[in-house]
Amino acid sequence: MQFALFAGLSFTPGFFWLWFYIRLNKVRPSPKRWVALTFLLGMLWSVPAAVINTATLPDNLLTANVAMSTFAVSMLLIVGPLEETCKFLAVRLGAYRSSYFTEPVDGLVYSTAAALGFASLENLGYVLQFGPEVLLARGPLTTVAHLVFASLWGYGLGVHQRSDRKRPWFVVAPLASAALLHAAFNIASFSVTYSWISMLIVLAGGIWAYRRFEWGQRISPLRFRRNYPLIECPHCTHQIRMLSTYCPQCGVPISPPFDTVICGNCRHPNRADALYCDHCGDRFLTHS
């Protein structure tokens, strides 16, 4: 019972921010199953990150006895690069290879999901180790910080995917920037004098990520694409518009409900209640 309570407290901030950012993606909402899978992959990749951190970092790193120079070097050379790379791999080896990663905003959506999955399991680890009161700092601040760092390379990955000329620095430079910003956030958080810098990083980064989401919606190549979905006539299987009242091929009356609809553009089958094609992203016109 206590573990379930701790898990609920640890994952609530991640679920909230995932819901907040995913609902911004209105032109072509990402499939929920891919968002959920990327969240889970972010959780899974936090495990090797934790193992490597434990094996390579000094035992007294999170104590008051550690020197600031030791802490800073650990953050810059190990924690920042390692954790951002693990989150990056959760997207690059997963959603990026799917047919649903087609525009810059997708990079932001899936990087957000991976980062929040990573942060949520990390939250649970800290709660089990130090108690639920640790969430007073990690819940509102560190969870969002993970999202901010990942939005840098997520944006770069989305731009890289859409670019006609694939340039590795589109991905490498944002990933390195995310690792550096991650390290700077941790160093500032560890210092009582400069802790305000960590809050500034999260605030400025959160605003930037939000505006990138809005920008991604405005330039989406899918924003004007729409078509009338089709259905198969139950009598002759001829494909006709969903809005038709009868089949022009055999004359059989047509009326809902329908089990599936077929995209009028790519002919991909979709659920009957779908608003967008899962394959090409066209918006379905369901009214005359």
Report on the structure:
This protein has about 290 residues and is mainly alpha-helical. It folds into two domains: about 1-220, no CATH class; about 225-288, no CATH class. It contains seven helices and six strands. It has helices spanning about 1-20, 30-55, 70-90, 105-130, 135-160, 170-190, 195-220; strands at about 225, 230, 240, 260, 270, 285. Strands 1-6 form a two-stranded parallel sheet. The chain has a two-stranded antiparallel sheet with strand order 2-3. It has a two-stranded antiparallel sheet with strand order 4-5. Strand 2 and strand 3 (about 240) form a beta hairpin. It is elongated and about 85 Å long. The termini are far apart. The model has no long low-confidence stretch (mean pLDDT about 85).
